[in-house]
Amino acid sequence: MWQRLEQREIRRRLRVVxxxxxxxxxxxxxxxxxxLPEIKHIVVLMMENHSFDNYLGTMTGxxxxxxxxxxxxxxxxxxxxxGKPVRSYRFDSTxxxxxxxSQSWHATHLQWNSGGMxxxxxxxxxxxxxxxxxxxxxxxxxxxxxxxxxxxxTFPLADHWFGSCLGPTFPNRRFLxxxxxxxxxxxxxLHLLDYPPxxxxxxxxxxxxxxxxxxxxxxxxxxxxxxRRFASYxxxxxxxxxxxxxxxxxxxMTDMQxxxxxxxxxxxxxxxxxxxxxxxxxxxxxxxxxxTLPAFSIVDPSFEEYSEENPQDIRRGESFAAxxxxxxxxxxxxPDTLLIWTYDEHGGYYDHVxxxxxxxxxxxxxxxxxxxxxxxxxxHRLLFxxxxxxxxxxxxxxxxxxxxxxVPAVIVSPYARRDCVxxxxxxxxxxxxxxxxxxxxxxxxxxxxxxxxxxxxxxxTAPPAFxxxxxxxxxxxxxxxx
Length: 482
Fold this sequence. Notes:
CATH architecture: 3-Layer(aba) Sandwich
Distance between the termini: 33 Å
Order of helices and strands: HEHEEEHHEHEHHEHHEHEHEHHEEHH
Radius of gyration: 21 Å
Number of strands: 12
Helix content: 25-40%
Number of helices: 15
CATH class: Alpha Beta
Strand order of the largest sheet: 8-7-9-1-10-11
Number of domains: 1
Structural class: alpha/beta
């Protein structure tokens, strides 16, 4: 029943534009053909809000990290509003400052500064004059994040993996699942009721019988019946719609924050899809141990507790990620698995590598509530004053023709090449390209059609180099069960 309902939901959403927007990798074979039988499970672990330099910039002899002087100290710096240089420095705590730095669309474009990568300090000063503007230039080292550094030194490191756009979490995660943000430029939950014309990668997978799951931390929902999970999801959907209705009628809402529970819900899922494809972390642990992970899965952290977004202690997120990766590596499905560890965007933290120009995914420009006329602009200021302050400074067209700031990315698999650094340009639509190449699926947008798959990190011509999982450092802190 649920499968039939899901297919009906897909057809309803895509009734205007057929789900064939691009060429298949091999037009001579039907869509859904498995072109990469060595890999049976693709797992994406996407954490939150850190740049490459902020986490991995101090690694030496491994990827393009922070520029160093003769004594091994980073030399990167940005000017403040008085023209005085603020140099990169190591944080003395793994706890972050709430709200600083910013990764909003406006702040990120200031930081990027047309490729100068010299606006990280002044962006903070402009957005919050009372904040410590040097925070954007801080970084952590191997002593702070031993597991992440060990992972990046062992498995193929993609040192030119960029966010998909110069913006915050929601637009970048939308690129991961659909190859487009569909006009979204912020993290406001009331903007999440639209759907991309060509659908999402989940539509493709479901239509061709390829299993997929979005795992995320829950409060015991894994043990609920399908009917109760149906009711739980419907309540959340209705709350989101009520928030949107209230915003249109200028009701003052308090404490309305980023409302992300799992990535797949950044485009409306539908009840059947939620019941069929969304699971908690206890199910993930069982599936990883038993070798029963689906063909494609996304693993989300708790976005309020250990996603690594400020003001969280970054060690909690590392502990979560280390546990996820360890369970995959030591599970029965490891011999046939590829896992990608990366970040949705940079969180406002400095990176010295300018992101290159990107292929616009479609003809849809960004749409800010602050620029949709005086009525909506007033509502925006009432409901989201800080977001409105940023958005009202944006000028000109809001386009997706530039990659976002560089983020960490490592490809983990028994087939991974030893001593491998991939310096090709990747972004989150590289995950889509990988999925499309494996199952011979057409591209969703112009962006994923132009993307490069990270398949070069793997070697299928020799026995798997990491069939026996290599030892990796323990995370800095063991926080127990999550």
